[in-house]
Specification:
Blueprint (H helix, E strand, L loop, with lengths): L1 H6 L19 E6 H19 L2 E2 L3 E5 L2 E14 L2 E6 L5 E23 L2 E27 L2 E12 L3 E5 L4 H39 L5 E4 L3 E4 L2 E6 L3 E6 L2 E3 L24 E6 H13 L5 E3 L24 H6 L5 E7 L4 E5 L2 E15 L5 E22 L2 E18 L13 H21 L1 E2 L6 E11 L2 E10 L2
Antiparallel strand pairs: 1-13, 1-15, 2-4, 3-4, 4-6, 5-6, 6-7, 7-8, 7-9, 10-11, 11-14, 12-13, 15-24, 16-17, 17-19, 18-19, 19-20, 20-21, 21-22, 23-24
Helix pairs in contact: 2-3
Keywords: Disulfide bond, Signal
Organism: Clytia hemisphaerica
Pfam families: LBP_BPI_CETP (PF01273), LBP_BPI_CETP_C (PF02886)
């Protein structure tokens, strides 16, 4: 159960084939029945720990001349026989049932009998054993301030047989209160089991979920907003819906783009499935463009020069294609000022992710007198294919990528040296474009961005694939806390 809480941490928002979600969402995480069963096992262990060696309040009662007072009530052993977790179809809910619970307890009990002049009293230890104990929690999942919140809507508990073993003699005294005491113990057990179940969910789990990272700062140049929107559940899984949107940290305005529909899987082989849509990627491109993050200056003094640009940092390298440039500025250093004309855009289809990049590259000559002269610019339109991967960075799981192939179009403008012609089918021209665009983009794509998670929750053997309009990560989960 606790993992259900933990997984609420992780992401999501989307459209299944037969459900329409009316909330903005850029990502989605699905917890399957297998994932929920693993989660429930965490809750079972925690509940057993909380109940074992738990001291209970003093119990007393009486009838027909008999009275008793039981102190030092202690639950010594609690073992859960079986459990089942089941999502409740609708807008997010769970039913967690535990059955076959064995409980052993002990107490110090004083019994008194008074009728007329007859007065009897005795105090002794009693061992208590129960079987057939079970209970069911119904849990609602909602959202508050962008964070998941759980609430126990109801709890019902049943207690089967109780065996009382009183030590010593005067058995009739204790037989006289046995049924009364059994009833009291059942009431106490029902209450304590439900109280601990509620506490586990309403206090501990929600305290944990308050640490859910609604917004994550990405190296101070962007914010990714993972605000939890709402859950959607069926009889076999729960979908957690997140906004999944990049924002400008200085001007965090929500995108007007509508998140897409996308294909979701019906498989339940993995514990969890995570989808990151091209909406998330496109809001990233929009932020990077507007904040100028994609502006670059590449020249001889640049600290890290893309390897395919190095051969082109002197007018000599253009003598073949642009002889006038070399003639007027022989053997002079060149700089390339790169900026996007519009936001890069991403499109995802089964088996493929496409990236469209539109940039302007100013070619600047470093003149003999030390001044700099823009001699022309290149408008480049690049259509690229990419690959995607997940990697662990400082205990955080990041989704990153690479451009693996591309085609491009080219036009020249702003020339001060006459007509400029660059043959786009020449390998050296493609090499220059690769260095200016691809080798500048890939380091940023490699860094990727985080999938929201909390400490102690790990993704095991995550696998990445593409579906219509989304990246899908299939994974098992492990809680190491």
């Amino acid at each position: 159960m606790k993992l259900v809480l933990l997984l609420s941490i992780c992401i999501a928002a989307a459209l299944t084939a037969d459900q329409i979600y009316a909330v903005p969402r850029g990502a989605q995480v699905r917890l399957t029945h297998r994932g929920m069963s693993y989660s429930a096992s965490i809750g079972v262990k925690k509940l057993q720990q909380e109940l074992t060696n738990k001291r209970l309040p003093t119990a007393s009662g009486g009838s027909g001349g008999f009275s008793y007072s039981a102190s030092n009530l202690l639950l010594r052993t609690v073992r859960v026989g079986g459990y089942n977790v089941q999502p409740v179809a609708g807008n997010g809910g769970l039913s967690l049932s535990m059955s076959g619970i064995y409980v052993s307890a002990s107490a110090r009990i004083q019994v008194k009998y008074q009728k007329g002049w007859v007065k009897l009293s005795d105090t002794r230890n009693v061992d208590i054993k129960t079987s057939g104990v079970g209970f069911t929690l119904r849990i609602n999942i909602g959202a508050q301030s962008g964070k998941p919140q759980l609430n126990v809507a109801s709890c019902s508990a049943s207690i089967g047989d109780i065996d009382l073993d009183f030590s010593g003699n005067l058995g009739f005294l204790f037989n006289g209160i046995a049924k009364l005491f059994e009833g009291k113990i059942k009431d106490i057990l029902r209450k304590v089991i439900c109280d601990e179940g509620r506490k586990l969910v309403n206090n501990e789990a929600n305290g944990f979920l308050r640490g859910f990272p609604v917004q994550q700062n990405i190296e101070n140049y962007a914010i990714i907003n993972y605000a939890f929107q709402s859950p959607i559940s069926t009889s076999s899984y729960i979908d957690f819906l997140l906004r999944g949107e990049f924002l400008d940290p200085k001007n965090p305005v929500h995108s007007k783009v509508t998140p897409p529909t996308f294909d979701t899987v019906t498989s339940s082989a993995k514990m969890a499935y995570v989808w990151i849509t091209d909406y998330t990627l496109n809001t990233a491109g929009d932020v990077f463009h507007k904040t100028g993050l994609l502006k670059k200056l590449v020249g001889p003094l640049t600290k890290e020069i893309p390897k395919d640009v190095k051969p082109f940092l002197n007018t000599k390298s253009f003598e073949k294609f642009i002889p006038e440039l070399f003639k007027r500025f022989p053997n002079r250093p060149l700089e390339f000022e790169i900026q996007t004309n519009k936001a890069p855009s991403f499109s995802i289809s089964p088996g493929n992710i496409g990236i469209s990049i539109d940039v302007r590259v100013k070619v600047v000559v470093d003149k003999v007198d030390g001044s700099k002269l823009p001699v022309f610019y290149l408008d480049l339109t690049v259509d690229a294919k990419g690959s995607v991967f997940v990697k662990s960075v400082n205990k955080q799981l990041n989704v990153g990528g690479n451009i693996v192939d591309f085609t491009f179009g080219l036009s020249v403008g702003g020339s001060v040296i006459g007509e400029v012609n660059l043959p786009i089918d020449d390998p050296s021209v493609k090499m220059l474009v690769k260095g200016l665009i691809i080798e500048n983009a890939n380091p940023l794509l490699n860094k990727g961005f985080p999938i929201p998670k909390v400490d102690d929750l790990d993704f095991i053997n995550p696998q990445v694939s593409f579906v219509k309009n989304a990246i899908r990560v299939d994974t098992d989960i492990n809680y190491s806390g």
